[in-house]
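We close this part of the discussion by returning to an individual protein. The amino acid sequence and the backbone structure tokens for this protein are reproduced below:
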Amino acid sequence: MARRDLAAVPSNEQGRARLELEFDQPYLLGPLFGDYDRHLIAIEQRLGVHIAARGNRVQIEGEADSAARARDVLVGLYNRLDQGHDIDAAAVESVIGMAAQPSLDGIIEDDVTSPPRAMIRTRKKTIVPRSVVQTAYMEALARDDMIFALGPAGTGKTYLAVAQAVSQLISGSVDRLILSRPAVEAGERLGFLPGDMKDKVDPYLRPLYDALYDMLPTEQVERRIASGEIEIAPLAFMRGRTLNDAFIILDEAQNTTPLQMKMFLTRFGMRSRMVICGDPTQVDLPDPGKSGLADAVSRLSGIKTIAVIRFTAADVVRHPLVGRIVEAYEGPGA
């Protein structure tokens, strides 16, 4: 862990601080600083501080609040490395964001200097939360029977659900993984696409395949799909089934009608878990006001063991520009 020392604040610079950190494992400083110090540069630019590294010591100067945030970000990233987690530019951005976010009760800041409270282990990687809301979501994925995940693209709704599903499939707590999406995209119809039924639906389901291949080796994904342990199918294929011992994920759920959503939710079987992901602002139905996702959330909120997790642009974990784009589209005048 890092040892932290507070240096004197120069008396002629009111409101500014100079903080010093000393790290006891120098071999972690390379990945902490990043190639050509790119992680330090990102922290400097985002928080308006100056960071100087000498040996295993780091000095931070700037406005007192910003310097304290930069210190917590560096300590948090260092502790993640010390716990065996990799960090990249996205991790740096997310920890910077988490250092300023209130906790879920709106009173106490989330402690970014501690190792993550929640994590998901798959064959290819260990996944940790990158925002306060992702932490709550990952805890709900491990706890609740049914989870509604609402929010804009890039917040990890589907990705984390697939990760949890793969983790439970590997551990044997579920026998199969079922991934589904409604085949509704910008007014196109399946009948107008070339090929057989698989060729027609695969483009709609490609994001689910991408997430799977990120969690499991390619040969395992293909073997489990062939054996039926992993099933990827359009929503229409769910009708008339009862899904026991399964982890079921519905993606792009805002494009369901209320009747389709009722049909899907009532597939829920014994010893199963269900996650419904969608962005209520991106409805592609002919009548956007009749989305099954909004209808289901309004009916089912408050029922025990059903969690509703709401993401915002602040939780976007793709390129920082994506978060600003989402804010621009959702802001005044949108």
Observations:
- The radius of gyration is 22 Å.
- Confidence is low (pLDDT under 50) at residues 3-12, 102-109.
- Residues 64-82 form the longest helix (19 residues).
- Residues 182 and 235 are 5 Å apart (CA to CA).
